[in-house]
Amino acid sequence: MVRMILFLILTVLAVITLVRILFMSAYYIIARIMKKADRRQLIRLKRAAIFLAAMIILNAGLVAISQITAHTPRIVDENGNTPENSIAELRELEFNGRKQWISMRGRDKNAPVLLFLAGGPGGTQMAAVRHELAELEKHFVVVNWDQPGSGKSYYAEKINEITPQTYIQDGHALTEYLKERFSKEKIYLIGESWGSALGIFLVDRYPESYHALIGTGQMVDFAETERMDYAKALENAQSRGDTAIVKKLMENGRPPYYGKDVTWKSAVYLNYLSAYMAGNPEIRNPGYNTIRDICSSEYGLLDKINFFRGIVNTYNDVYQQLYTIDMRKDYTRLDVPVYFFLGRHDVNAPTVLAGEYMQVLDAPEKGIVWFEHSGHSPWINETEKFVKEVLSCFLVSETQ
């Protein structure tokens, strides 16, 4: 937090100085033309330029130090001690020519490996999972992956060149790395929102690598989800008399959207629905703790900026590539156990679609676990139950 405040102060000073230099330069040029230039003006201009250069150098150094010193905190037990066989690593790896970051955390590095697939595309939940699901670290080596175009891996690939296949290729490469690193034949998967779809893609393509998959905030049909979300937001806005939202929704038209404004058009109804869920008294602990997460030690100052850039830019380019996917038609047979953890009050990923998908899905073991006090994020809304159900489902799958 101190570094972020210092970065903002230096940035503001640099901007103010730059504006001052521009005005001073214009004034000096005019004075030269009118032959009224004063040597003191030039001296003041040089001093301002030196000050600006100093601010830029200090800020660049601050950013570099923050990136180098980014880390994931050590594992501690109830007594504040670090277990001898624990693991807490933040590591950069290269998959298919793309450099990207993962965190690996667990009390026992010999425990089963659980890979958490974040939402988005473009989202990073490396810190959020550590904060919310620390209990899982007692039972698994919990791995979080900043996917290409998100957070610490924002520069892994040019944004306009990222496709769903990019994530499948790199997800598989990461899985193979984890299997080798921890001497496992298979690992577990939890996918959240977009990550729940990526989990389906991975277990469909490489079933031999996974014990089981849990999808939460399960995505099924992307285009239909957007249409349903839009209709829900429009209905609520009209009933509440939110005329500004109604007007904006009508101006944007019915999704799906394409082009350069996908993020901003989708944000109108997605943010409105998020606020709707946050105001639902039936949902516990609603929303994300964004300030806490972005200030976490895993992210350097550049990562903090890319935290938001991924949500905006990567989402915009990749999401519109997903509109043709319908799990109910494209992924009806999976050769690993699959479970959906659904919030009863989720209006972001309509649970009716997940229910329809579960009906047609052929899998060795399948089921829906309902979270009665959750919205789109049961892993945040009902953390204790979420952990309990993860252990229950994965123990079942491991014995099969």
Verbal overview:
With 400 residues, the protein is α/β, with parallel strands linked by helices. The protein folds into two domains: 68 residues; 241 residues, Alpha/Beta hydrolase fold, catalytic domain (Rossmann fold, 3-Layer(aba) Sandwich). It has 14 helices and eight strands. The chain has an eight-stranded mixed beta sheet with strand order 1-2-4-3-5-6-7-8, with helices on both faces. Helix 7 packs antiparallel against helix 8. The protein is globular and about 85 Å long. The mean pLDDT is 94.
Helicity level: 40-55%
Largest sheet: 8 strands, mixed
Query: Which descriptor suits the 3D outline?
Result: globular
Low-confidence stretches: none
Spatial sequence of strands, sheet with the most strands: 1-2-4-3-5-6-7-8
**CATH topology title of the largest domain:** Rossmann fold
CATH second-level architecture of the largest domain: 3-Layer(aba) Sandwich
Please, what is the average pLDDT?
94
C-alpha-based Rg, rounded: 24 Å
Tell me the strand percentage band: 5-15%
Count of the domains? 2
Straight-line distance between termini: 47 Å
Number of helices: 14
The total beta strand count reads 8
Structural class by SSE content: alpha/beta
Query: What is the element string, with H for helices and E for strands?
Result: HHEEEHEHEHEHHHHHHEHEHH
CATH domain class of the largest domain: Alpha Beta
In CATH, the homologous superfamily of the largest domain goes by the name Alpha/Beta hydrolase fold, catalytic domain
